[in-house]
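This part of the workshop introduces the protein records we will be handling. A record pairs a protein's sequence with a compact description of its fold. As an example, a complete record with its sequence and its structure tokens follows.

_____
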Amino acid sequence: MYLLGRNSSVIFSAITIAAVIFIIYEDSVISKESLHSGVFRANKEISGQLKKSTISHITLRSVQEEIENASLMNSLKPPASVTEEERIAWFRKKLPEFEIFKSNNLTEKFHGRVLEFFGEECEIRAFMTWISPVRSFGKREVLGLETFFKAHPHGCLMILSRTLDSRHGYRVLKPLLDRQVKLAAVTPDLSFLFKNTPAESWFDSIKSGNKDPGEIPLAQNLSNLIRLAVLYKYGGVYLDTDFIILKSLKGLKNSIGAQSTDVVSGNWTRLNNAVLIFDMNHPLLLKFIEEFATTFDGNKWGHNGPYLVSRVVQRVENRPGFNFTVLPPSAFYPVHWNNIGGLFQLPENRAGLRWVKAKLLQLSGQTYGVHLWNKQSSRLKIDEGSVMGRLISDHCVICEQIYSS
């Protein structure tokens, strides 16, 4: 009996490993066959393939996800406790693995796809970025997309993402695309985005391995820069993926949100770059990009993001020629990151129920959206009856799997 159990275990393990390897191979092939039209368009052949593929993968998806995420992220994470010279040497060795730097037929079509996608029928043009593996784009992120389209039924949202611009990415976005919303994932051309901006020389140095990327994963800092460059080139709204949108942003123009204010003076103390709303070629965006390129530090969290926009705005907010608005924390950051967990929890008594009602009433006022601070909340379950449960239920489109996300 012992030998039989042991042999069965070995056989099962071998089959499991073979199946996972097959899935990895299949997804790598699929990702190269990107859907490169301006908007993803379903057809019967693809729909049939995707339906069959989804069913065959469902039992191994969690295993595959762990392998893909861990191997990709860990291999590109800078080593800790090394000198700058050692980190640069590591970075040069790893450069061929940074897919985001590579050019292909999709990057060459980037500008044309953007122009084709954003037509006159768009009530609002919005961008997001997604540099992580496609399987990391989960139910919570999809619910965030739903709230955007609930507030903007005729809005146009483009996700700048090499990983989502794929057959696998299509599967993730298909439930929303089936609702005929204007949504697309597009592979960005970073060289084009940064060309003729102060970031061009910085990007050339990074791409050639001549600059220290720092201890913080480079993807995080690239996202900070991409959002600035895409708004500078095209104008519109940038949103982080961990937002629940509560009402239309159409009335906002050339705006950035304060994350915190001084309790006495009411003046802002820190801004955040998770939401940016600016016209094309806005001078403040150019200042942001210039600051990124000249003061880049990949070792300090927030230095190239929230702290960057705070530094620049502090210097220019009283100068002529910069026309912009700093919105209060209630607009996009009504809950401090340290307290975000309270929105996900079910009230335990009548006092808790009264707090939920009061919070919902407060958010229905000046709040355009709620930043979920994904680093703190991504593993929190949404309890039915919680503030977050009520918000998503009232602002979703498909409204499935809210409490399992």
